[in-house]
Specification:
heterodimer, A: Carbamate kinase, two-stranded antiparallel sheet, 8 helices, about 30% helix, B: alpha/beta, Carbamate kinase, 9 helices, 12 strands, globular
Amino acid sequence: MTDVAVGAGVAIPQRRKVETPFGSGSLDHKDLLAGTDYVQPIRVLPDVNIIKIGGQSIMDRGRAGLFPLVDEIGACARNHQMMIGAGGGTRARHAYAIGLELGLPTGVLAAIGASTALQNARILQMLLAKHGGIYINPEDFEKLPQFLRAGAIPIVPGMPPYRHWEKPPSLGRIPANRTDSGVYLTAEFLGARSCIYVKDEEGLFTDDPKKNPKAEFIPRITAQELFDRDLNDLVVERIVLTNMMKASHVREIQIINGLVPGNLTRALAGEHVGTIVTAPQTE
Amino acid sequence: MTGIIKGAAGRRMHMRSSLMRESLMDKTVMAASDKHAVIAMLPDVNIVSIGGCSIMDRGKNAIVPLLDEVVRCRREHQIVLGVGLGARLRHTYHICLDLGIPTGGMAMVAGAVGEQNRYMVQALLAKHGGVVLHKDHFVVLPLWLEAGLIPLMTGMPPYHYWEPPSGNQRVPMYREDFGMFMVSETLGARSMIFVKDEDGLHTADPKTDPSGKLIPSGTAQELLDMNLPDLIIERVVLESMLYARNTRRIQIINGLKPGLLARALAGEPVGTVITTDKPRAEGTSDADALPKGSRS
């Protein structure tokens, strides 16, 4: 290569631009879209329902927790397009605990945590195979229409693929984006019909009902109210609430008790059986 | 630390660990997770991010001298290069917005622009040991650095369809600057240098507003508090720096001026140096949960 002196005395090479309606500033400029008339985002798969199966809450209960739920998912899939995201659970906690002690950065913890959700996704696939359960990679998202038209139930690990790019959280070191977040973002990207979190409690409480018997059930609440209450504990990852408030499509999620037969069927039918969290459009 | 805790049939089965039975959303548990200091995985590596619009789109006369300098600097310093996207990214976003492609879809298709630029840089650096580092090949980095290679990667983080929604802004917030910042933060790199086409961060974009003044140094919090309408670096980098455990200093330099990269790698405060002095392990606010302007 040749050294070309650029700078003093030499013309500065010009940026070669492609004309767009954007302003001249960066893509973060708050007036980036001022004066443009872009349409609202499309819904990629508006009929699909995204179901998160909890790790600690459902998977770690083994047969007693999972078998009835698997059969219910199979029955529901005859009437609804469904896609499953798997949680992590106690093995993820075990790995995080050792990783934290070793001083591993959050990005490495996120990469490690993804492996437990991957295990659970594969386990769910084997259980759901007879009902059409298939394991898919993120690279297979483009084939989702084919899978869903064939009546299959695509299953993915819940963790988003952030891995080493998981940013340091504001509190502590455990990754803020875990399986609740990944499943929510899947639903939001697809413009899904619903996003349902299957856990082992009726829904959201004012505190962890497993530890505090005085914790009160919250049947319906907005994401903003949840932030304002500043609860010490939550049944869903906080980042989900943040993302909901900026979302184009999925502004409502429902958290249900998957140990109660029929709850998933009713939630898919649009019934209110657990806690519904909404993020109403304010404008 | 091992041991399976089995309850009665249908109860949750636990593994003994300090996080057993804990809700990871419990703030007490979250705060306690910061007990141990974070290690630096590769403390000798320097992360150098080459701008898309600022360098790549200017073509040969901007790219070649800069890469020559990278090759010279590699004799003394371990370097991982990141490559930005530029004008074709903006055009991609424009077409996608016109079609109503959701934010996650935009993040997914954008990556190909970065790959184009990465191929260009790899072709130029091949004879000097430039190798493409795929994002799931991090574990081979020690070998490549030991061999004197120059690993290079697209700056974009692998968020793809999982790019968080950005409200009314619509376009992905997490782009090449953030991606390389996170490479630096996770690896515990020696330095994080952003190579752009201005002398650093200004109070206003000097390309459109001649009154814009250079800010030679400042903390991430100070810069965020100034609430400038635009920044030469992605806002999420400054926001993430507040909670960084390893990368608490970044530098923005002018890659059109020869010699600045070498000086920055030598530790000289050329350009703009941004630091964060927030003591680690003290996250009491919940900025992740409620960023400014989060309601759309």
